[in-house]
Amino acid sequence: MTQSNTTDFSQSSPAQRDAQRPRRLWRAASVLVVVLAATQLQGCFVLGLGAVGTTAYVATDRRTAGSILEDNTIQLKADNRISSALGSDANVRAVSYNQQVLLVGQVPNEADKQKAEEIVKGVPNVKAVLNEIDIGPVADLNRSATDTLITTKVRAGLIDAHDIFGNAFKVTTSNSVVYLMGIVTQREADRAVQIARDTTGVSKVVTMFNIISEQQLQQMQNPQKTNAPPPPASAAN
User: Could you name the domain of life of the organism this protein comes from (predicted)?
Assistant: First the structure.
């Protein structure tokens, strides 16, 4: 049952309507900000508001539409299963890119770290797992805010670089360590690592790339050509 809460403004006095107008404007502005932020963070254009979820096209991602959907499914299942198994003493996040999963966060002991990895390996269609979970207390709000700021700065640096395509990279930060994922050439990979290392506050850079050739990149950019699937990801510190 859906409960409806409707206000009849026709019965309100002019003073009441004047008092309620700023609230309505603020609420509308808040919704607009959330919608804009969500589309910017996802880097996608939604075509046709009447069919959201079926006609979304990710214009800047080198993964196939099916791979993007699978990654979202893997992340949701992994996060839910880990949360149910480890409880509130753990803070673990799964980041899936091209069905290869990065695990970051904090757990109280080594057993829980290994348990989280085994849980993710049991999620359907997961190809590989990079377990970067820290053993220790859950990060506080200051630590989380610092990591978010670092991620933002690295993303900005990648986008500002004119010799690579910044949106081809997925950036994750945990405890000042930056993790880079993506389907990229070796040239792009080296440049991205340099940008991340030069970013203030970064203590370490770890990569989990699918390396492709410059020819494969050209084929990806030309939809009339058929390109081979990218090779498996390789992790590097």
Answer: Bacteria
- Letter for the amino acid at 171? V
pTM confidence score:
0.71
- Predicted pLDDT at 4: 40
Percent of the chain with pLDDT over 70: 69
Check if the beta carbon of residue 193 is closer than 8 Å to that of residue 180.
Answer: yes
**Please, where are the H alpha helices in the chain?**
14-42, 65-86, 110-121, 141-160, 186-197, 214-221
Per-residue pLDDT of 50-100, as tens digits, reads 333 333 335 579 999 999 999 999 999 999 999 999 999 999 999 999 999
Cα 202 to Cα 150: distance, rounded to the nearest angstrom: 7
Return the H-helix or E-strand segment holding 211.
strand 204-212
Q: Residue written as tokens 């609420």? A: 27
CA nearest neighbour of 207 among 97, 122, 125: 97
**Dihedral-angle region of residue 192 (phi above 0 means left; psi in -120 to 50 means alpha; beta otherwise):** alpha
What are 211's two structure tokens? Answer: 């390396």
What is the C-alpha to C-alpha distance for residues 213 and 188, in angstroms, rounded to an integer?
10
Distance CA 46, CA 39 (A): 8
